[in-house]
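Usage

Read records sequentially. Each one opens with the input sequence:
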Amino acid sequence: MLRTLPPHARLYLKPVWFVPSPIGLPDGSAARMGNGLIWFQGYELTAFDGARRIARVTVPVAEFDAAVAALPAPLAERARRFAATISATRPPLALGTRTVRFDAPQVMAILNITPDSFSDGGRHLGDPQAAADAGFAMAAAGAALIDVGGESTRPRAEKVWEGDEIARVVPVIERLAAAGVPVSIDTRKAAVMEAALAAGASIVNDVSALAHDPRSLEVVGRAGCPVILMHAPSAGDDPHHNSAGYGDVVADVFDHLEARIAACEAAGISRAKIMVDPGLGFGKGLADNLALVNGLATFQGLGVPLLFAGSRKRLIGALSNEAPASERLGGSIALAFRAAELGAQMVRVHDVRESVQALHLWRGLADAGLSAV
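and closes with the structure output:
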């Protein structure tokens, strides 16, 4: 089958057949995902001709080189590159005096300074000290990064003038940064990025993957800061607008993020400072979201740290008798744990203490599996 694939096919590689440890296995039969605690024994190789899937085969790690040799040269090169990037070390992020490592999953805490965010809108609006205190509590509970946002990106949310957004987030960022708490700024606007970075933010987290504002690439490149590129089907005012739909959602999101990484590199942004987020819930239906979760390991082929943001999302309510956002803790923890199992290097959450505890359990189980004899 692999010999007959056309050279122009779209090819993807997903780690499968996870094992707790390579100990006791034949040499070369297992590969490591990044520099984390996950090992696997197979690759699922999928190919598309346009929107049509033309191949899906599982290849043992031990047989990968021989199988890839049968591919047309362009596809063989792509497959080998994906295998290398899946196992490549994810360098740590240096955030001032703090370093965020990716040898185990990390927690990003959500701190919205908005009146209308879908889960916690209005809770911290108008009181920068109270908002900062909430951020301090999240950091004390184990969050590696506090993600501060001043504009809701829920469906049909009103666009916020950049001056208002700056006024919401900067006083909070200044307080957190002054105390040494690492902060990311959740925004699509270059002016807000500039103000937040000047106030002490260390990372830009953009739901449009730096495509909404024409100046964003320049701002991030000049600042030399890390950036999180999220997939959304539209870079316009409504990031949920999706007139085209998806052929295969995992492949389409992968292609989009791969292109945005290339755009960042062309703008002088180091690949070592890029993270990606597949954008769960943004312009995606239930089937799309489930496919994204199950296909998360595919995004390791991009070779950069993966952020997963499933906290309190609509997906959980859809599978839980329409539970409101305030009653989605169990589903949020389950998604975070599943994301960690599939290699996510960071999870973005509302419920920090519970999520940190869940990931401590995940790490304990992974450590025990690796040390078993």
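Summary fields computed downstream for this record:
- The chain has two domains: 2-87, 93-371.
- The radius of gyration is 20 Å.
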